Amino acid sequence: MTEFTGPTGPIRDVTTGMTVVDASGETVGTVDEVHLADAGAATGAGQSPDEPGGPVTWIADAFRAGSELNQQAQDQLTRVGYIRVDARGLFSGHRYVEPREIASVVGDQVQLSVAADQLLK
Asked: What is the pTM of this model?
């Protein structure tokens, strides 16, 4: 078994405030949260935070407001990491980008390898 070594790939260079652009070059929105992978994350029903306001609560709060994500998708994003995008225009609301969907990070821009309509919401 290999030991989890932390974030790899372009997600480690993403910060809040960056512009997110989809595979066709269209602006999706702005990064408003970065959550790095947590291979040992507590998931599923019946899990509760160790303390009020603890890490499990923070993660639950990140998905709660306006999210259409089912529990399985939330668990997956918690384990692999994600960036939450405050989308605008036709794609308004939050969109969630998995690390594998990030093609590159250059300057203050995150370039995706997928179309905006393929992102989780």
From this structure: 0.73
